[in-house]
């Protein structure tokens, strides 16, 4: 039984047929960069999917939403939502042989906004994600000291005792909030750029650029280390943890753990660093830990940069078609320039804002539009035939049910619930303020009114890019192009390309 789909004239002109794909595969086999083997490809996928968030964000979310009970809905959504969406994105991208803008523009030119929204999210997430990489590099640099600089409080100016701020909190807290971030007491108190963080950020973006411009030749080999070393280091830490006193009966100082601030980044840069100081040969453990974090983050950033550069190539909006190396360099420079906001004394608060809104609502909107577009506009029957062509058999009943019904409904429900809770709730953030009564516990502060404009930029603009581009294209085509019936007679190369490729 064929599944109904919305009218989509001109689709066959916009996408290559199966025979054309076979021909293109033979003709371009020697020209296109490719992985040395399937292992490189799989490790790259694993490296992109498993990143820093699995170490510092997921445990925090798990702890703050019920602990072990959180894993039940997480695993359910992983099976019914995450994996089906990942499979769909991989399959449609492989079928249409293009990046996000090219894929959705081929499905239907009015869907180009999905690709642009994906590019914007990758741009925003990459900016703050690589800032975390800069923090990691800063800690890794300081790990080559014995004792570790965060293992003890510094003396005050008179050498008569410890610095008051450190004595009232802890050495790891002090090193993170004062020595590393030199944090201010509010998001609107910028405090200027911190030069050591600027240097670390320069190093992070430079290293990423060097790896990316070499293409698959470098990244394909780098993933052997970046995607496997973290699991080796985690195994070492697990073995070490099992040999500690009290590990077999499950005892731990829970109160100390909770007081160290498992809010987001605090888990990686406070709780784990506190644990490392109590280990023998602590600099060695510190070096291993931050190398592990660095590998996790670097492999994910490869995907983030590709998520910006490849759509830019598809858009073809520049006077001359710039090579990928130039686009990558421009992307890194622009990202670094904007990311300087995270190197201010208020940078930690800005990063938390980006993390909370840039990758939340926009991703839900994009994921929902992707699945609905494939099922109801591209056509699930055509999609099934494409998968059969690529792997030799059609997707089974599980994929059919999740793609057609379960996953879109779940995403819609989550989006509505999340949007309602965010709009109805009071937006606050946590600050490090030694003058606060609850110090050293982080103080809860309300965002200033102007922050809602920033939130609109982070969450609203990428989300509105989907309908916004469609409306713009509709008006443009009605005013400046031929009517639809005449337009769809043109070939793929002529379709919707008056001046800019995305039009």
From TrEMBL:
Highest rank taxon of the organism: Eukaryota
Chief location category: membrane
Membrane topology category: Multi-pass membrane protein
Plastid in keyword set: no
Location of the protein in the cell: Membrane
Residues engaged in binding Na(+): 47, 50, 54, 259, 296
Protein name: Transporter
A Pfam family annotated for this UniProt entry: SNF
Keyword Transport carried by entry: yes
Organism: Salmo trutta (Brown trout)
Protein keywords: Membrane, Metal-binding, Sodium, Symport, Transmembrane, Transmembrane helix, Transport
InterPro entries the UniProt entry points to: Na/ntran_symport, SNS_sf
Spans traversing the lipid bilayer: 41-58, 70-92, 113-141, 193-210, 222-239, 284-305, 326-344, 356-380, 401-420, 450-472
Family recorded in the similarity comment: Belongs to the sodium:neurotransmitter symporter (SNF) (TC 2.A.22) family.
A GO molecular function held by the record: neutral L-amino acid transmembrane transporter activity
GO biological process: sodium ion transmembrane transport
Cellular-component GO terms for this entry: brush border membrane
């Amino acid at each position: 039984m064929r599944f109904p789909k919305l009218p989509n004239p001109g689709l066959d002109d916009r996408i290559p047929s199966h025979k054309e794909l076979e021909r293109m595969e033979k003709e371009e086999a020697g020209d296109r960069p490719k992985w040395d083997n399937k292992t490189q490809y799989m490790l790259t996928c694993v490296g992109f999917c498993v990143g820093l968030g699995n170490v510092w964000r997921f445990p925090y979310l798990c702890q703050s939403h019920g602990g072990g009970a959180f894993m039940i809905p997480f695993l359910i959504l992983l099976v019914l939502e995450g994996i089906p969406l990942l499979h769909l994105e991989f399959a449609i991208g492989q079928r249409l042989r293009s990046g996000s803008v090219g894929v959705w523009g081929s499905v239907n030119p009015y869907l180009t906004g999905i690709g642009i929204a994906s590019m914007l999210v990758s741009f925003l997430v990459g900016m703050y994600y690589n800032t975390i990489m800069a923090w990691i590099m800063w800690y890794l640099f300081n790990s080559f000291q014995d004792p570790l600089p965060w293992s003890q409080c510094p003396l005050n100016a008179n050498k008569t005792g410890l610095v008051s701020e450190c004595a009232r909190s802890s050495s790891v807290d002090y090193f993170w909030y004062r020595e590393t971030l030199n944090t201010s007491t509010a998001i609107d108190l910028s405090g200027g750029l911190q030069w050591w963080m600027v240097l670390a950020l320069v190093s992070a973006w430079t290293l990423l650029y060097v790896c990316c411009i070499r293409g698959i030749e470098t990244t394909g080999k780098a993933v052997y280390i970046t995607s496997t070393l973290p699991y080796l280091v985690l195994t070492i830490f697990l073995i070490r943890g099992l040999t500690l006193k009290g590990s077999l009966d499950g005892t731990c100082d829970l109160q100390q753990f909770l007081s160290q601030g498992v809010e987001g980044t605090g888990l990686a840069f406070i709780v784990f660093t506190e644990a490392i100081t109590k280990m023998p040969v602590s600099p060695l453990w510190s070096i291993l830990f931050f190398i592990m974090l660095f590998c996790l983050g670097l492999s994910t950033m490869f995907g983030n940069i590709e998520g910006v550069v490849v759509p830019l190539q598809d858009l073809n909006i520049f006077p001359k078609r710039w090579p990928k190396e130039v686009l990558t360099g421009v992307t890194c420079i622009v990202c670094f320039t904007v990311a300087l906001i995270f190197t201010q004394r208020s940078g930690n608060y800005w990063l938390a804002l980006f993390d909370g809104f840039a990758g939340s609502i926009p991703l839900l909107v994009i994921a929902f539009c992707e699945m609905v577009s494939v099922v109801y506009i591209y056509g699930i029957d055509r999609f099934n035939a494409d998968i059969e062509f690529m792997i030799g058999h059609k997707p089974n009943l599980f994929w059919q049910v999740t793609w057609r019904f379960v996953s879109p409904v779940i995403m819609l429900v989550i989006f509505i619930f999340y949007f309602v809770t965010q709009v109805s709730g009071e937006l606050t953030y946590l600050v490090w303020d030694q003058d606060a009564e609850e110090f050293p516990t982080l103080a809860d502060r309300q965002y200033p009114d102007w922050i809602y404009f920033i939130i609109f930029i982070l969450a609203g603009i990428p989300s509105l890019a989907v309908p916004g581009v469609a409306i713009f294209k509709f008006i443009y085509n009605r005013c400046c192009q031929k009517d639809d019936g005449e337009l769809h007679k043109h070939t793929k190369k002529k379709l919707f390309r008056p001046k800019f490729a995305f039009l």
